[in-house]
Write a structure and sequence with these properties.
It is a single chain. The chain is α/β, with parallel strands linked by helices and 187 residues long. The chain has one domain: Dihydrofolate Reductase, subunit A. The protein contains five helices and eight strands; from the N terminus they run βαβααββαβαβββ. Strands 4-3-2-5-1-6-8-7 form an eight-stranded mixed sheet, with helices on both faces. The longest helix is centred in the first third of the chain and has 12 residues. It is globular, with a radius of gyration of 16 Å.
Length: 187
């Protein structure tokens, strides 16, 4: 069975974006952190996105120029299969995209049971909150940025239940980001 992995930038005080989706607080990745980001992307063959995140994510990577230092990563993001979870879109947009409009639990179960590499989730906040609350995420990669933004979008407002995690690794990087990797305890 494929694993569903969340990779998310997060502030020390638990926010994944500013009140209006701002990401200006995210620290620029160093070479070693880029290596981890690439390895994680390479271990996956599908990316899941909420509609709001997809509206910025997909066009962002499709516009990179060949002289950009991260062009090869941008091309990975363009070429990988992306599934947009939505209740409102009628047709997909961008390259290598499709829509998921059915029940979240059924869609995730179907995807996990398909053959292939792991599945990566980047966001957005509402979509990720639903995945966490439903216990769908198998592995969490928290890119903890050395900043407190004091208000914004959260992903941990779980309804009526706790979820225990086990630490896989904690790695600090020169840029100041610490990557905490956890797995969900299903026992």
């Amino acid at each position: 069975m494929r694993k569903l992995k969340l990779q998310v930038q997060i502030s020390v005080d638990g926010y994944v974006a500013g009140p209006n989706g701002e990401e200006d607080w995210i620290v620029k990745s160093d070479e070693k952190l880029w290596q981890l980001i690439n390895e994680t992307a390479d271990s996956s063959d599908t990316i899941l996105l909420g509609r709001k995140m997809a509206e910025g994510f997909i066009p962002h990577f499709e516009t990179f120029k060949t002289d950009s230092p991260v062009f090869s990563f941008a091309q990975k993001m363009v070429n990988i299969q992306k599934i947009i979870f939505t209740r409102t879109l009628e047709k997909p947009f961008g390259k290598n995209t499709s829509l998921a409009k059915e029940n979240l639990q059924d869609e995730i179960a179907r995807l996990k049971n398909q053959n292939g590499k792991d599945i990566l989730v980047y966001g957005g906040a509402g979509f990720v909150s639903s995945l966490i609350a439903g216990g769908h995420i198998d592995e969490f990669l928290f890119f903890v940025n050395p900043v407190m933004i004091n208000k914004g979008m959260r992903i941990f407002d779980l309804p009526d239940k706790r979820q225990k995690l086990s630490l896989i690794s904690a790695v600090p990087y020169k840029c100041g980001v610490t990557v905490l990797r956890y797995k969900l305890n299903r026992e």
